[in-house]
Design a protein that fits this description.
four-stranded mixed sheet
Protein backbone atom coordinates (compact mmCIF):
# COMPACT_ATOMS: atom_id res chain seq x y z
CA UNK A 1 0.00 0.00 0.00
CA UNK A 2 0.99 3.63 -0.35
CA UNK A 3 1.34 6.50 2.06
CA UNK A 4 -0.63 9.75 2.00
CA UNK A 5 -0.51 12.13 -0.97
CA UNK A 6 -2.58 14.98 -2.40
CA UNK A 7 -6.16 14.89 -1.15
CA UNK A 8 -5.60 11.37 0.26
CA UNK A 9 -4.52 12.30 3.81
CA UNK A 10 -5.41 8.71 4.69
CA UNK A 11 -4.51 6.39 1.82
CA UNK A 12 -7.19 3.72 1.40
CA UNK A 13 -4.61 1.37 -0.14
CA UNK A 14 -2.53 1.24 3.05
CA UNK A 15 -5.64 0.84 5.22
CA UNK A 16 -6.86 -2.02 2.97
CA UNK A 17 -3.45 -3.71 3.12
CA UNK A 18 -3.46 -3.46 6.93
CA UNK A 19 -6.90 -5.14 6.91
CA UNK A 20 -5.48 -7.88 4.68
CA UNK A 21 -2.62 -8.33 7.15
CA UNK A 22 -5.16 -8.86 9.98
CA UNK A 23 -7.08 -11.42 7.88
CA UNK A 24 -3.96 -13.16 6.58
CA UNK A 25 -3.65 -15.53 3.65
CA UNK A 26 -3.45 -19.32 3.44
CA UNK A 27 -1.04 -21.02 5.87
CA UNK A 28 1.46 -21.77 3.09
CA UNK A 29 1.84 -18.06 2.22
CA UNK A 30 4.29 -15.66 3.88
CA UNK A 31 2.72 -12.21 3.71
CA UNK A 32 4.95 -9.13 3.96
CA UNK A 33 3.32 -5.69 3.93
CA UNK A 34 4.97 -2.32 3.33
CA UNK A 35 3.77 1.25 3.18
CA UNK A 36 5.45 2.78 0.14
CA UNK A 37 6.07 6.54 0.15
CA UNK A 38 4.62 8.43 -2.84
CA UNK A 39 8.12 9.32 -4.10
CA UNK A 40 9.64 8.25 -7.42
CA UNK A 41 13.23 8.03 -6.15
CA UNK A 42 12.23 5.97 -3.11
CA UNK A 43 10.30 3.56 -5.34
CA UNK A 44 13.33 3.17 -7.65
CA UNK A 45 15.42 2.05 -4.66
CA UNK A 46 12.82 0.25 -2.53
CA UNK A 47 11.13 -2.05 -5.06
CA UNK A 48 14.34 -3.74 -6.32
CA UNK A 49 15.57 -3.98 -2.68
CA UNK A 50 12.36 -5.75 -1.59
CA UNK A 51 12.58 -8.19 -4.52
CA UNK A 52 16.18 -8.94 -3.56
CA UNK A 53 15.43 -9.28 0.15
CA UNK A 54 12.40 -11.59 -0.12
CA UNK A 55 12.77 -13.34 -3.54
CA UNK A 56 8.97 -13.57 -3.66
CA UNK A 57 6.85 -15.73 -5.90
CA UNK A 58 4.56 -12.73 -6.38
CA UNK A 59 4.34 -9.08 -5.35
CA UNK A 60 0.95 -7.41 -5.25
CA UNK A 61 0.95 -3.63 -5.07
CA UNK A 62 -2.19 -1.82 -3.91
CA UNK A 63 -2.93 1.83 -4.66
CA UNK A 64 -5.84 4.22 -4.33
CA UNK A 65 -7.63 5.79 -7.28
CA UNK A 66 -9.85 8.76 -6.54
CA UNK A 67 -11.81 7.97 -9.71
CA UNK A 68 -12.39 4.28 -8.95
CA UNK A 69 -15.78 3.01 -7.80
CA UNK A 70 -14.70 -0.64 -8.11
CA UNK A 71 -11.67 -2.68 -7.09
CA UNK A 72 -9.55 -2.67 -10.25
CA UNK A 73 -6.99 -5.25 -11.38
CA UNK A 74 -4.34 -3.62 -13.55
CA UNK A 75 -3.09 -5.74 -16.47
CA UNK A 76 0.12 -3.85 -17.28
CA UNK A 77 2.57 -1.16 -16.26
CA UNK A 78 3.83 1.66 -18.50
CA UNK A 79 7.37 2.98 -18.83
CA UNK A 80 6.81 6.53 -20.07
CA UNK A 81 4.56 9.52 -19.48
CA UNK A 82 5.30 10.41 -15.85
CA UNK A 83 4.74 14.15 -15.47
CA UNK A 84 3.07 14.49 -12.05
CA UNK A 85 5.15 15.71 -9.10
CA UNK A 86 5.49 13.35 -6.14
CA UNK A 87 5.39 14.19 -2.41
CA UNK A 88 8.94 15.60 -2.70
CA UNK A 89 7.85 17.82 -5.63
CA UNK A 90 10.04 15.62 -7.88
CA UNK A 91 9.37 14.10 -11.29
CA UNK A 92 11.87 12.02 -13.31
CA UNK A 93 13.46 14.28 -15.94
CA UNK A 94 13.15 11.48 -18.49
CA UNK A 95 9.47 11.02 -17.52
CA UNK A 96 10.12 7.27 -17.55
CA UNK A 97 10.77 4.38 -15.16
CA UNK A 98 13.55 2.46 -16.88
CA UNK A 99 15.60 4.14 -19.62
CA UNK A 100 15.46 1.85 -22.67
CA UNK A 101 12.87 -0.46 -21.09
CA UNK A 102 9.87 -1.71 -23.06
CA UNK A 103 6.91 0.70 -23.33
CA UNK A 104 4.57 -1.67 -21.52
CA UNK A 105 5.02 -4.84 -19.45
CA UNK A 106 2.10 -7.19 -18.88
CA UNK A 107 1.66 -9.13 -15.66
CA UNK A 108 1.98 -12.91 -16.02
CA UNK A 109 -1.21 -13.11 -13.94
CA UNK A 110 -4.34 -13.64 -16.05
CA UNK A 111 -6.34 -10.72 -14.64
CA UNK A 112 -9.45 -11.62 -16.67
CA UNK A 113 -9.61 -15.05 -15.02
CA UNK A 114 -8.88 -13.64 -11.55
CA UNK A 115 -11.63 -11.03 -12.03
CA UNK A 116 -14.16 -13.68 -13.14
CA UNK A 117 -13.31 -16.05 -10.27
CA UNK A 118 -13.39 -13.36 -7.57
CA UNK A 119 -16.64 -11.95 -8.96
CA UNK A 120 -18.17 -15.45 -8.79
CA UNK A 121 -17.40 -15.65 -5.05
CA UNK A 122 -20.28 -13.32 -4.29
CA UNK A 123 -18.30 -10.79 -2.25
CA UNK A 124 -19.97 -7.46 -1.59
CA UNK A 125 -17.31 -5.76 -3.73
CA UNK A 126 -17.30 -5.28 -7.51
CA UNK A 127 -14.03 -6.17 -9.29
CA UNK A 128 -13.02 -5.03 -12.76
CA UNK A 129 -9.88 -4.86 -14.94
CA UNK A 130 -7.89 -2.02 -16.51
CA UNK A 131 -4.94 -1.50 -18.85
CA UNK A 132 -4.00 1.95 -17.53
CA UNK A 133 -2.74 2.35 -13.95
CA UNK A 134 -2.56 6.13 -14.36
CA UNK A 135 1.01 7.30 -15.12
CA UNK A 136 1.69 8.35 -11.52
CA UNK A 137 3.32 6.53 -8.62
CA UNK A 138 1.00 3.52 -8.90
CA UNK A 139 1.87 2.85 -12.54
CA UNK A 140 5.53 3.78 -11.89
CA UNK A 141 5.76 1.30 -9.00
CA UNK A 142 3.96 -1.40 -10.98
CA UNK A 143 6.24 -1.04 -14.00
CA UNK A 144 9.35 -1.01 -11.78
CA UNK A 145 8.20 -4.23 -10.12
CA UNK A 146 7.17 -5.91 -13.39
CA UNK A 147 10.56 -5.03 -14.89
CA UNK A 148 12.38 -6.37 -11.81
CA UNK A 149 10.37 -9.62 -11.76
CA UNK A 150 9.84 -10.36 -15.45
CA UNK A 151 6.10 -9.96 -14.98
CA UNK A 152 5.55 -11.66 -11.59
CA UNK A 153 3.76 -8.66 -10.11
CA UNK A 154 0.20 -7.48 -9.83
CA UNK A 155 -1.43 -4.16 -9.07
CA UNK A 156 -4.82 -3.58 -7.49
CA UNK A 157 -6.46 -0.15 -7.37
CA UNK A 158 -8.99 0.46 -4.61
CA UNK A 159 -11.44 3.37 -4.31
CA UNK A 160 -11.16 5.84 -1.42
CA UNK A 161 -12.57 4.54 1.87
CA UNK A 162 -16.34 4.77 2.05
CA UNK A 163 -16.65 5.43 -1.70
CA UNK A 164 -18.28 2.92 -1.57
CA UNK A 165 -16.39 0.26 0.42
CA UNK A 166 -15.25 -0.06 4.03
CA UNK A 167 -11.71 -1.03 5.01
CA UNK A 168 -13.00 -4.48 5.97
CA UNK A 169 -14.64 -5.00 2.57
CA UNK A 170 -11.44 -3.95 0.80
CA UNK A 171 -9.31 -6.24 2.99
CA UNK A 172 -11.55 -9.23 2.23
CA UNK A 173 -11.49 -8.38 -1.48
CA UNK A 174 -7.66 -8.23 -1.45
CA UNK A 175 -7.52 -11.55 0.37
CA UNK A 176 -9.75 -13.22 -2.25
CA UNK A 177 -7.91 -11.59 -5.16
CA UNK A 178 -4.44 -12.56 -3.95
CA UNK A 179 -5.49 -16.14 -3.19
CA UNK A 180 -6.93 -16.43 -6.73
CA UNK A 181 -3.71 -14.98 -8.17
CA UNK A 182 -1.66 -17.55 -6.27
CA UNK A 183 -3.90 -20.33 -7.60
Amino acid sequence: GFGPFGEHAVNASWIAVQELEKLGLRDDVDLHVYEVPVEYQTVQRLIPALWKKHSPQLVVHVGVSGMAKKVTLEKCGHNVGYKGLDNCRFCPGSQCCVEGGPECIDSVIDMDTVCKRVSALGLDVTVTISKDAGRYLCDFTYYTSLYQSRGRSAFVHVPPLGKPYTAEQLGRALQAIIEEMLD
